[in-house]
């Protein structure tokens, strides 16, 4: 028998939200660490099916924003509505269960484990059988493992990393590690994928590859993406809408072209005295 | 010749006829495997027939008719191979095209071949073809295998492979007699139809479409299948370019005739791994792949522990001493046999297993000269590696070495049913069962390639050795003379240089000049490793190539090359006097190599004319700018000051007299 998974069956789960409707709504969020105000009164939203970029100079609060979205930080003020549900305090693994996955600015993989195992780790959130079954490994747990392995193989094929399936990720070049990390996030089949500087430290060719994967994730799998990125060319080409932060405040929000010509944005990037 | 009548009363003179036969006789045996989603998927001959049939009927519904040309572009995948058989079953002619060809090369071939349909692998190829759609008005429909990224493309002329097969299935369901009619058409087909059109790699100018008649193709394949006793129990890994005669002949043609299983790798990068999993029984690789294998083994052994290294060295010496004799069934002392058997257990066996060569019954190499050391390394491990010499115009085989009569410096006697002769000016000419029936639309070129009495001119200069094996010296038109009148055979000199693992490519100059000089390309893997071991830091290929220590290393190789040349009476006159290490790797994307990675001599000569002049005007360094193509297709310039060094020349040895006296 020759089974090819149907790509249409994989990807973002059907959460009853139509394309273009509100998926995430961040309202008047403020976050501070002691006296340091990381984020001040920021509101923006992410619509289902779009690529949303968060940009801004160093220290603008972009990563803090991502950390708020995936529940790592709890904001002092404001509210976050995800899939129509308001939440306040939560842990990152709750966010994962809600369908939010992310990659990190510095690759955060299990270095000693193979690519395959790293991506399989991303499936753990979907595993139904408990530790006891997993240790026994036969019967239902094996059937479940096969099912997950199929999804993981689909991701490996999608990201074209077949040749490093069994390679420990610590041995891989940086660009490939980034790709494995994306694979692990995809394994969670998120409704919202957060990418923290997916192109950082990459050469031109790797950037082109990564851009293509991001577009494919978005278009083929229908995954909504919010990304932070410094490469303006990439941001302007990839994203549907861009929100610009500077010193923890939102200074612009809109289509790439509009943002590009916004005077405040230009000032923020060129460095005008505040 | 091999036109055996079967029970069904058909004369086996086309590949689709073999498809029907194999589905009958080997119905349950695997015909094709492909690693997909991490698992080896397989199709039996019966299933393969069903796949080809639904594709063929789908294509027919799309408008494919007898005589239409169908381009096939992509890597080795079952669906593309089915494309060949499906086209042939309708009397259409498959035209495989190199998947890595840049847009303009591909446009030329598709236009020249007048293809009306194209079966391509993925978005990359679709994009490429659509980028020059206006230049190929004959092309009507494109069928793609992988839908990825193509969802939003206009689908007026674009079709999913599965959709075409599905339409074939629907027709089959609607019309009960359709399957029988399809098979009847195959049985009625003539062996005089063109089976395939293969484009030459274009070492000299534009590539030409070589037309191979079905009966010729089948006869040639049947001869070599019998020669190497290939059967349905054999298996191969198909990993070489689809468009190359070698892949089409060795895997497709021989596979259909013998019924062996063809395995397609998961991706280009996983070939080594897939080879290990499949463990094929028949294997072909050009010398550079064997060289790569040896280099990687050597590098890994250098990092191994002391005991392992000692074992490896010791048993390799044992293998060198007895291995070849054991392989050829010669006489070996009992103690030697026992020691070799121990070595097989401890070293050779595991090594062959890692390389995926454990089950090899027959392995071939061809295309370039292979170094004696390299060749005997693999043979001493017990791998039956042989050489063949062939051409697209011959549908591959011209000569082939018999088991037990194998040498590294010759390519064997004539293959079964092939006539070879050497013309008065030293050119090799042949007539063979598989020989081509002409270049497509180029009758003048066809006439140029044939002699009056119907022999094909190979364009290679060669001679028969005492034991009847053919030795190829060089391309006939490349062989020249120095001002002194000494013979100058550039390929011979380049090959001698290339036997050093550190030298990846070399280009020799000297025809009509005072002395012989050479460009040398270092091998980044080998030299890079050497540099690492010797604490030599470098940031780029260019920097490594220009490093003084690297120059010293290469100078040693040039010196040894000259010593070897001095021992060859014919070649001693053309030793290398001056050389330089090129700042840039010769690349097919820049037109310096052909797609089969052979140097395009005249092009390189023009492109680096300033450097060649510097080789001859006595200067010690030369500033140069070279245009190059980056991976993403953009063009740029690299600038470098290239140093030029002198090399020592040896006196020709006295052996000359002895040779002459014989």
UniProtKB/TrEMBL annotation, chain A:
CDD domains referenced in this protein's UniProt entry, alphabetically: ABC_Mj1267_LivG_branched
Keywords attached to this entry: ATP-binding, Nucleotide-binding, Transport
Domain ABC transporter: 24-272
Top-level taxon: Bacteria
One GO CC term on file: plasma membrane
Pfam families registered for this protein in UniProt: ABC_tran, BCA_ABC_TP_C
Gene Ontology terms for molecular function: ATP binding; ATP hydrolysis activity
Family annotation (SMART domains): AAA
Database matches in PANTHER family: ABC TRANSPORTER ATP-BINDING PROTEIN, CONSERVED COMPONENT OF ABC TRANSPORTER FOR NATURAL AMINO ACIDS-RELATED
The protein's name: Branched-chain amino acid transport system ATP-binding protein
Automatic annotation (TrEMBL), chain B:
UniProt entry tagged with the keyword DNA damage: no
The keyword rRNA-binding belongs to this UniProt entry's keyword annotation: no
UniProt xrefs under InterPro entries: AMP-binding_CS (IPR020845), AMP-dep_synth/lig_dom (IPR000873), ANL_N_sf (IPR042099)
Single annotated GO MF: long-chain fatty acid-CoA ligase activity
Domain of life from the UniProt record: Bacteria
Keywords: ATP-binding, Nucleotide-binding
Domain AMP-dependent synthetase/ligase residue range list: 22-440
A GO cellular component annotation in the UniProt record: membrane
Protein name: Long-chain acyl-CoA synthetase
């Amino acid at each position: 028998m020759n089974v090819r998974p149907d790509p249409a069956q994989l990807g973002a789960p059907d959460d009853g939200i139509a394309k273009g409707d509100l998926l995430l709504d961040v309202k008047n969020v403020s976050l501070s660490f002691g006296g340091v105000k990381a984020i001040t009164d920021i509101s923006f939203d992410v619509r289902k099916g779009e690529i949303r970029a968060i940009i801004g100079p160093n220290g603008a609060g972009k990563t803090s924003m991502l950390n708020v979205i995936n529940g790592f930080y709890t904001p002092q003020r404001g509210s976050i509505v995800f899939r129509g549900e308001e939440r306040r305090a939560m842990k990152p693994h709750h966010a994962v269960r809600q369908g939010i996955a992310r990659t990190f600015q510095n690759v955060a993989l299990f270095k000693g484990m193979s690519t395959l195992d790293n991506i399989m780790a991303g499936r753990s959130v979907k595993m139904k059988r408990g530790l006891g079954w997993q240790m026994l490994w036969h019967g239902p747990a094996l059937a479940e493992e096969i099912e997950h392995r199929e999804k993981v193989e689909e991701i490996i094929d999608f990201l074209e990393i077949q040749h490093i399936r069994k390679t420990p990720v610590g041995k891989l070049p940086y660009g490939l590690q980034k790709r494995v990390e994306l694979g692990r996030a995809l394994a969670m089949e998120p409704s919202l994928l957060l990418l923290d500087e997916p192109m950082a430290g990459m050469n031109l060719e790797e950037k082109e590859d990564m851009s293509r994967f991001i577009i494919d994730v978005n278009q083929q799998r229908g995954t909504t993406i919010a990304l932070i990125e410094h490469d303006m060319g990439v941001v302007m080409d990839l994203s549907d809408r861009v929100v610009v932060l500077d010193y923890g405040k939102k200074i612009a929000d809109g289509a790439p072209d509009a943002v590009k010509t916004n005077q405040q944005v230009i000032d923020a990037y060129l460095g005008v005295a505040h | 010749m091999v036109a055996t009548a079967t029970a069904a009363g058909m004369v086996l003179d086309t590949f689709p006829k073999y498809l029907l036969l194999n589905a009958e006789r080997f119905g349950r045996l695997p015909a094709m495997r492909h690693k997909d989603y991490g698992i080896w998927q397989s199709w039996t001959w019966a299933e393969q027939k069903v796949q080809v049939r639904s594709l063929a009927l789908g294509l027919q519904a799309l408008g494919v008719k007898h005589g239409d040309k169908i381009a096939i572009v992509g890597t080795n995948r079952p669906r593309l191979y089915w494309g060949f058989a499906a086209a042939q079953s309708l009397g259409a002619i498959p035209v495989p095209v190199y998947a890595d060809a840049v847009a303009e090369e591909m446009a030329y071939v598709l236009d020249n071949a007048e293809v009306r349909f194209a079966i391509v692998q993925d978005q990359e190829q679709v994009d490429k073809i659509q980028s020059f759609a206006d230049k190929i008005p004959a092309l009507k429909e494109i069928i793609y295998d992988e839908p990825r990224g193509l969802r939003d493309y206009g689908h007026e002329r674009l079709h999913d492979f599965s959709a075409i097969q599905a339409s074939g299935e629907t027709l089959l369901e609607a019309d009960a007699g359709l399957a029988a009619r399809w098979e009847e058409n195959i049985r009625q087909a003539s062996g005089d139809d063109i089976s395939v059109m293969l484009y030459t790699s274009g070492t000299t100018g534009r590539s030409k479409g070589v037309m191979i008649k079905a009966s010729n193709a089948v006869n040639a394949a049947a001869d070599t299948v019998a020669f190497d006793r290939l059967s349905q129990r054999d298996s191969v890994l198909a990993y070489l370019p689809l468009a190359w005669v070698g892949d089409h002949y060795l895997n497709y043609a021989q596979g259909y005739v013998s019924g062996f299983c063809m395995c397609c790798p998961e991706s280009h990068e996983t070939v080594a791994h897939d080879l290990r999993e499949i463990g094929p029984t028949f294997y072909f690789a050009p010398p550079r792949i064997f060289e790569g294998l040896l280099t990687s083994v050597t590098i890994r052994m250098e990092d191994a522990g002391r005991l392992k290294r000692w074992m490896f060295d010791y048993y390799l010496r044992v293998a060198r001493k007895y291995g070849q004799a054991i392989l050829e069934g010669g006489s070996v002392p009992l103690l030697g046999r026992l020691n070799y058997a121990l070595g097989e257990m401890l070293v050779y066996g595991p090594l062959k297993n890692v390389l995926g060569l454990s089950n090899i019954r027959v392995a071939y190499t061809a295309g370039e000269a292979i170094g004696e050391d390299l060749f005997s390394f693999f043979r001493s491990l017990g791998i039956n590696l042989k050489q063949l010499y062939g051409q697209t115009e011959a549908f591959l085989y011209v000569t082939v070495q018999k088991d037990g009569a194998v040498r590294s410096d010759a390519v064997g006697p004539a293959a079964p049913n092939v006539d070879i002769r050497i013309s008065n000016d030293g050119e090799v000419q042949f007539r063979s069962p598989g020989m081509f029936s002409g270049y497509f639309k180029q009758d003048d070129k066809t006439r140029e390639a044939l002699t009056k009495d119907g022999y094909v001119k190979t364009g290679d200069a060669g001679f028969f050795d005492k034991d009847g094996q053919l030795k190829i010296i060089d391309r006939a038109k490349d062989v020249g003379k120095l001002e002194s009148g000494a013979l100058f055979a550039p390929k011979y000199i380049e090959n001698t240089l290339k036997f050093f693992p550190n030298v990846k490519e070399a280009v020799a100059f000297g025809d009509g000049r005072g002395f012989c000089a050479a460009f040398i390309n270092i091998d980044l893997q080998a030299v890079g490793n050497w540099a690492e071991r010797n604490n030599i830091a470098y940031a780029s290929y260019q920097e490594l190539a220009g490093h003084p220590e690297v120059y010293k290393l290469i100078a040693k190789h040039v010196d040894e090359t000259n010593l070897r040349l001095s021992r060859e009476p014919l070649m001693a006159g053309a030793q290398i006097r001056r050389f330089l290490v090129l700042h840039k790797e010769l690349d097919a994307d820049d037109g310096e190599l052909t797609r089969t990675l052979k140097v395009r001599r005249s092009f390189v000569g023009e492109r680096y004319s300033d450097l060649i002049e510097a080789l001859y005007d006595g200067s010690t360094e030369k500033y140069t700018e070279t245009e190059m193509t980056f991976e993403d297709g953009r063009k740029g310039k690299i600038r470098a000051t290239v140093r030029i060094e002198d090399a020592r020349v040896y006196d020709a040895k006295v052996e000359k007299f002895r040779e002459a006296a014989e």
